[in-house]
Hints:
Strand content: 15-25%
Strand order of the largest sheet: 1-7-6-4-5
Number of strands: 7
Amino acid sequence: xxxxxxxxxxxxxxxxxxxxxxxxxxxxxxxxxxxxxxxxxxxxxxxxxxxxxxxxxxxxxxxxxxxxxxxxxxxxxxxxxxxxxxxxxxxxxxxxxxxxxxxxxxxxxxxxxxxxxxxxxxxxxxxxxxxxxxxxxxxxxxxxxxxxxxxxxxxxxxxxxxxxxxxxxxxxxxxxxxxxxxxxxxxxxxxxxxxxxxxxxxxxx
Length: 205
């Protein structure tokens, strides 16, 4: 999402459906293991964002491939067919998509002019939101890296994948913090879970 703005890349589902928030970090100590948790405060409901992103992908796919089925859309989105069915019913009821019976047991979905206008609107919103997510991730990681420096480290181990993890990696390099592939417990570990970033500071030697 952040690097290529590809419309087929959805953000990972956050672990807390109530949306991200910020929790205070635990103070650094010279003993024990310190965990610092930074949750992105991006100022909008994640559920609404996911719904809009899915609507955008469905509209885009239907326009590009009128023979798209609910099963193929579900595969494209990485969700259950029932989820796609819910989105399609909503888009049809609002006049953004029309459905026709192409064969005895096959339906064809067609995007309407109103649907094309909605897709353009959602695309703009998607790009704006992507930049907000990028900035929020970068700011939080910079905060975490200041804690890494305070603990006397110049490198971290990064665990996780996806766009948020990639922003974490790039921000580390930008801030002069090396990213190690080895997790031997001697350096801090940064873990990415959906939209959450966890920093684990191990025992001081």
